[in-house]
């Protein structure tokens, strides 16, 4: 009767490789990522119509000028993805890269949905 090699698989190296790639990609196991497909040209050329963004939940306190955010427009109820141009007293002003004017009103934590972390041209 032949005996086969009884190998013990160690999962530690596999877990280390996964953790390394998550770290390099800027992803954390603690963060919950969301994905949205964007339409329109307000963020062109940074984000083109049909591309996807990954975003994490955040607060106004954690934002900086230049960040790209997703928020719910209080006037239309639609989700909007624009760049932070000003933060004053816990309120955000945003503007699409391809728009001439800033968005109406201020964005607060109530309207803020998330901070864009990645832009993809295809879903993954």
Quick overview:
The protein is mainly beta and 124 residues long. Helices cover 10% and strands 31% of the residues.
What this model shows, in words?
This protein is mainly β and 124 residues long. It has one domain (30-120): Ribbon (Umud Fragment, subunit A), CATH 2.10.109.10. Helices cover 10% and strands 31% of the residues. The chain is built from one helix and six strands, in the order αββββββ. The chain has one helix at residues 12-24, and strands at residues 33-37, 52-56, 68-72, 79-88, 91-95, 112-120. Strands 1-2-6-3-4-5 form a six-stranded antiparallel beta sheet, with no helix packed on it. A hairpin with a 2-residue loop joins strand 4 (79-88) and strand 5.
What layout of secondary structure does this protein have?
Elements: H1 12-24, E1 33-37, E2 52-56, E3 68-72, E4 79-88, E5 91-95, E6 112-120
Antiparallel strand pairs: 1-2, 2-6, 3-4, 3-6, 4-5
- Class computed from helices, strands and strand pairing: mainly beta
Dominant shape: globular
In total, how many beta strands?
Answer: 6
Radius of gyration: 20 Å
Please give the alpha-carbon distance between the first and last residues.
Answer: 48 Å
Please write the CATH class name. Answer: Mainly Beta
């Amino acid at each position: 009767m032949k005996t086969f090699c009884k190998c013990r698989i160690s999962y530690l190296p596999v877990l280390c490789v996964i953790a390394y790639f998550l770290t390099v990609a800027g992803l954390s196991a603690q963060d919950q990522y969301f994905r949205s497909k964007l339409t329109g040209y307000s963020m062109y050329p940074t984000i083109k119509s049909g591309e996807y963004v990954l975003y994490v939940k955040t607060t106004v306190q954690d934002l900086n000028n230049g960040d790209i955010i997703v928020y719910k427009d209080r006037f239309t109820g639609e989700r909007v993805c624009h760049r932070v141009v000003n933060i004053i007293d816990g309120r955000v002003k945003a503007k699409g890269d391809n728009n001439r004017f800033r968005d109406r009103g201020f964005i607060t934590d109530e309207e803020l949905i998330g901070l864009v972390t990645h832009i993809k041209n295809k879903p993954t």
